[in-house]
Amino acid sequence: MTTAHRPAPPVRPTRPALDVAALRADFPLLAARVHGRPLVYLDSAATSQKPRAVIEAISRYYEASNANVHRGVYWLSERATAAYEGAREKARAFLNAREAREIIFVRSTTEGINLVASSFGRSALQPGDEVLISAMEHHSNIVPWQLICGERGATLRVIPMNHSGDLLVEEVERRLTQRTKIVALVHVSNSLGTINPVREVVAQAHARGIPVLVDGAQAAPHMPVDVQALDCDFYTVSGHKMFGPTGIGLLYGKAARLEAMPPYQGGGDMIRSVTFAGTTFADIPAKFEAGTPHIAGAIGLGAAIDYLSRLDRGLVADHERDLLAYASARLQEVPGVRLIGTAALKASVISFVLAGVHAHDVGTIVDQEGVAIRTGHHCTQPVMDFFDVPATARASFALYNTREDADALVAALAKVRQVFGG
Ligand SMILES: Cc1ncc(COP(=O)(O)O)c(C=O)c1O
């Protein structure tokens, strides 16, 4: 008897999965135990954990290269300067900026935005002018603009969102006026997870000659950022949210924009010459880096960029998408849970409320189970007002999280419901 020869089904090339266990081993603190239980860290949107490579790069700098930068003619200072400027070049490549001088080291996203609001705002805003932001901004992309608008007699206008947490892109056009001097928009919302159509907004603003600042604090840890493709005028990130140290961040600015802006702070290193009669300023980026910078921080951030660059970012994105879908579905199985922020395009940030329990109580009880989540307004009070909640609980997932972490959160929420008689 002959058997009919059946061709084997085509083999679908499957992508190898991210080796999360190996990644986790890179982050010493993930092995910690809290309250006698393994730590389940779900607050990476507030700050990420740090891989050993970053921790060691900082120690190595202090042990082997510590000296002030740009000032000494001696070997050690030149070595420190090379490491610091090397980190700037890594940052350039990471954001795909055209030139290293378009990268300013700042303290954080907050400082990046304050720099632009103060420097650009002070020189560009006249009474009656407008600054356009969105309804889902972090306070750090609201308050600096309010301050400068107050000072200059300008007005802050807001692009609305809907109750899924999607930006109403069709409203952008209507809010861009002849008086709009800058648009400042968050790339990924920290309280809703929404990924905004930045490229589209930039195109609309540029059609009217209006520059755009993008708050990339929550984007950089999750997705490759290409400032040339986005064509934004400014882009700012915090090192500590992308596996680097605290106290260091990046502000990208198009060279022509930065060159046209006055200094933000005065001091050493940002000058060409000083007399009591007046001062001339250094070229960018030095013009915006007054005083001794956070050298170790920049080097640590460079190590974080190296770490991220060695990963397959496509695999990381697949993994985080899976975590988002899995955790969102599991959380919705918990009676009384309502997700806040269900935009079509989201990063792995999940805000939720639990009926009858304040978010702070949720956070305190799940902590007893070893689960670290954020509770409160997440520095987005207008978002809380819009959704008419005092606060949310927020679980944010990074590349080192697992489905088991989501399971641990769901199990801990069952404890919360027990305590509150749910
Ligand atoms: C979207 C967004 N923008 C800005 C910030 C401010 O970042 P930093 O506190 O590092 O300056 C945060 C921090 O949570 C954020 O999530």
What does this entry look like structurally?
With 422 residues, this protein is of the alpha/beta class. Helices cover 38% and strands 17% of the residues. It has 14 helices and 17 strands. Strands 4-10-9-8-7-5-6 form a seven-stranded mixed sheet, with helices on both faces. A four-stranded antiparallel sheet has the order 13-14-17-16, covered by helices on one side. A hairpin with a 2-residue loop joins strand 11 (271-275) and strand 12. The radius of gyration is 23 Å and the shape is globular. The model has no long low-confidence stretch (mean pLDDT 96). Bound molecules: pyridoxal-5'-phosphate. Pyridoxal-5'-phosphate binds next to helix 4.
Would you tell me the structural class of the helices and strands?
alpha/beta
Please tell me what the overall shape is.
globular
Percent range for β-strand residues: 15-25%
Number of helices: 14
Radius of gyration, Cα only, in angstroms? 23 Å
Number of strands: 17
Could you write a compact summary of the structure shown?
This protein has 14 helices and 17 strands. The protein is α/β, with parallel strands linked by helices.
Provide tags for this entry:
single chain; 422 residues; alpha/beta; seven-stranded mixed β-sheet; four-stranded antiparallel β-sheet; 14 helices; 17 strands; 38% helix; globular; binds pyridoxal-5'-phosphate
